Amino acid sequence: MLGRFSIAPMTLGLLLLGSPGGLPLPIAVAMAQEQTSVETAEGLLRAARLSEALDQYQQLLLQAEQTGDVSAQAAASLGLGRTYYWLSQPERALPVLMQARELYATLEDGPGLAATVMEIAIAQLAQADLEAAKESLDQAQERYQQLGQDPSRVLAFQGHRLMRLGQWAAALEHLEQGSQSD
């Protein structure tokens, strides 16, 4: 409380930092807005509002590139790649996901890297590049295990890959393992 007025900490920070001459918002506020935008785009994707999600992720990626925010670039690239996949455009998804993988590797962000490698595998399966998908799925499984996370989704997609190869017994084994949770 300042004097007789109650001021929230974020508002107080803005007042203290000020923005004379139209200077950019403080970094903390910009990061909060960016996180909200990513969450909004993810919500659009989950709601199957794909064209809106595509527009949102493209705008986020452009903004992140302009500001040099590598973390935001990685998140926007991952989301954009997922959106292309859901739009049945795996050929457009793959290069964007590869970009996200490089960005997450630069950031040394294990969970982001694991999720991105998994999405790359899914796009490769959609393109029927079964050998590349196997390599990506193996990498995703290794990364999830290193993080102590459940690899069942990876196993399920390995099962789908093996089905496409006609390896029914191995596919069934992977699918059964993939349907179980830790």
Summarize the structure.
This protein has 182 residues and is mainly α.
Describe the structure.
This protein is mainly α and 182 residues long. It has nine helices and no strands. The chain starts with 8 loop residues before the first helix and ends with a helix. The N terminus is likely disordered.
- Helix fraction? over 70%
Rg (C-alpha, Å): 20 Å
Distance linking N and C termini: 49 Å
Unreliable stretches: 1-32
**Count of alpha/pi helices:** 9
What is the ordering of alpha helices and beta strands?
A: HHHHHHHHH
Mean of all residue-level pLDDT scores: 83
Task: Give a topology summary.
Blueprint lengths: L8 H9 L9 H20 L3 H18 L2 H17 L3 H18 L2 H17 L3 H17 L5 H13 L3 H12 L3
